[in-house]
Design goal:
Blueprint lengths: L1 H21 L1 E6 L9 E5 L4 E8 L5 H4 L4 E4 L3 H11 L13 E4 L8 E7 L9 E4 L10 E7 L5 H19 L3
Parallel strand pairs: 1-3, 2-8
Antiparallel strand pairs: 3-6, 4-5, 4-7, 7-8
Helix pairs in contact: 1-4
The chain binds zinc ion (ZN).
């Protein structure tokens, strides 16, 4: 009984971060008007995908604010234009913009926000980007979000489980 419990707990601890890494990504934004992630890959094997945005700079959001918006490449320009018209109080996004697939709120230095969206919203035939809708920022902060069919990190998970089994066997033998 105890052995079973320990094995399950350890397995959960080890595999959870690996599985989570498949369907989520952490993106840092900076005072230099950049994202540190050059592309985001979303696997079709994920039901939902989570993007956590952190602002690792110090400047406030009215000066160097960043959000992270996901949309079809063909919609980015129009979303940006409407966002500028909406203003900083609306996080530089038009309210309930149907073209926006997902977005975080606008954040300043030291802040973070995350967003989760259904991967089924992405169409394999479309090109997507993630960008910041703060006026002018998309010039540097507009990058590819790629919808891929293969699941990522399958090898890493198998390897971890293999090592775990070996370790558990050795650890639990005395019981
Ligand atoms: Zn920005």
């Amino acid at each position: 009984m105890i052995r079973k419990f320990v094995a399950a707990s350890v397995l959960a601890l080890v595999s959870a971060p690996l599985l989570a890494a498949e369907c989520s990504v952490e993106v840092h934004s900076t005072d230099q008007m950049t994202f540190d992630t050059k592309e985001i890959k979303v696997s079709k094997s994920c039901k939902t995908f989570t993007i956590e945005l952190k602002h690792v700079g110090n400047l406030p959001k009215n000066v160097m604010g960043h959000n992270l918006v996901v949309a079809k490449t063909s919609d980015v320009q129009a979303i940006s234009a409407d966002g500028i018209a909406a203003g900083v109080d609306k996080d530089y996004l038009k309210a309930d913009d149907a073209r926006v697939i997902a977005h975080t709120k606008l954040i300043g230095g030291g802040e973070s926000d995350s967003v989760t969206f259904d991967v089924s919203k992405l169409d394999a035939a479309e090109a997507y980007q993630f960008f910041c809708s703060f006026p002018g920022h998309a010039a540097l902060m507009k990058l590819a979000l790629i919808h891929i069919s293969e699941p990522t990190r399958r090898y890493a998970i198998s390897y971890a489980v293999f090592c775990l089994k070996k370790k558990l066997f050795m650890t639990l033998k005395p019981y």
